[in-house]
Design brief:
Helix content is about 10%, strand content about 20%. The chain has one helix at about 40-45; strands spanning about 20-25, 30-35. The chain is mainly beta. The chain has a two-stranded antiparallel sheet. The chain has one domain (about 5-60).
């Protein structure tokens, strides 16, 4: 019996690997994917991922300065 292959999706925007390049990551024992456009959210605004990624509330954002 052939089972459908699950397509990976971005943990932030839910776009699939068919729509945008995804990066694979591991955090707290889970394998996750995030797209190249949402990676700055993980780095600078991880609080936006609360409820989408277990432990996101524990990640300290990296300061962001474009001066």
């Amino acid at each position: 019996m052939n089972r459908p292959i699950m397509s990976a999706v971005c943990l932030s925007c839910d776009r699939s690997e068919s729509d945008i390049p995804l990066l694979q990551l591991r955090f707290k024992g889970e394998e996750l994917s995030i797209c190249s456009q949402c990676l700055p959210v993980l780095i600078h605004e991880p609080e936006k991922l609360v409820g989408r990624m277990r432990g996101a509330e524990d990640i300290e954002p990296i300061p962001h300065d474009h001066e």
